[in-house]
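Appendix B, example 12.
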Amino acid sequence: MGMVSAQETETIQDSTIIKAPVMDSTFLKKDIFSILQERGPYSSGVIVQQTENLRNAFYNHIALASNKKIYGYRVRIFFDNSQSARVKSSNVKTNFLASYSDIPAYWTYDEIYYKVTVGDFRTKSEAMMILRKLQPEFPSSFLVKMPINFPPL
């Protein structure tokens, strides 16, 4: 019912990476309780009975969890502290997003360095895949372990 049944895999050297299944976009931002109650192909459905307190606790948990960060990996494609670093970093981010619109990019200023970091990878092997892909275009790129946003499911 909407989930991709077969997982995609990719092999790099002696490692196999199993990509997480992608959720059907028809479920995006939908209430699980209303999805369960929708009629199926044979007019079947599920009736969920719970108190309003339980429903509110469920939604509060989701709201709080979405603000939490987890540690993972990103690929740093730019860092510099020259006088023109601000403009260069902005251009790098813009050019990156033009070529890789499916990978999030983050521009930061930390103490004296302007940085552009890309991706939200839970595992080092996922980040290494992207790093290898980006190194021809960004030869000084490297991995950074840091708090990341929850990747979409």
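The chain has a mean pLDDT of 81. Strands lie at 9-12, 15-18, 70-80, 105-110, 113-121, 142-148.
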